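The aim of this short unit is practical: by the end, you should be able to scan a pair of folded records and say something sensible about each. We start with the first protein, listed as its amino acid sequence and then its structure tokens.
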Amino acid sequence: MIPKYIVFNINMPDKNGKALPVGQGNNLDELLSAYHGKAYQIMKVKTLSDREEW
């Protein structure tokens, strides 16, 4: 099952300079309490059908 939210740590880039995912879940409140501060960015996952045309 695909999670609703993914958490990225913007202070931990990978070898390509992209932020690394550090967590995932379906409850935004739980993620906000566990991952708070400027280092973390919580992104909502969109399915391919929900995305805009590229």
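Turning to the second protein, read its sequence before its tokens, just as you did above.
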Amino acid sequence: LCCGGGCIGLAVAHYYPEVAVDLVDIDPGALALARENAASLGLAERVNIIESDLFAALDGRRYDLILSNPPYVDSEDLAALPGEFRHEPELALGSGVDGLDLTRRLLAAAASHLVDTGLLVVEVGNSWPALERAYPRVPFTWLEFEHGGHGVFALTAKELQDYGAG
């Protein structure tokens, strides 16, 4: 979800050829880039590209794994971003005062789109402290990477259901 140019989903499709991948975004421009990237990587026949506001157009589909890189920049950080970020659509970066508007919607709906043993993985970047304050009972598992990023959590379908993350 919120696939942008499709980098994460296309990497999954490349390294796991037996897996079906849906690339989902609300922005037609992002989906055009995802389509172009899929074609240039020889993966166009292996991925479904879907225009949707989160789960709205997914017709009750359920997934083993949902990976999402939603917009998560809070309004203060968005206003302070360097000029080169002005080339990005604001829709792709900002997500309300605390950076969690889209993540809240995602958490509210994800459990019903995961199989019982499913896993949700979401990047929230610097908004992670606000997320923990907003959901103090939810047992977020924060993932660590050898290179790059922080602020990526995982939750199982059961955790989403048990802790009412939505």
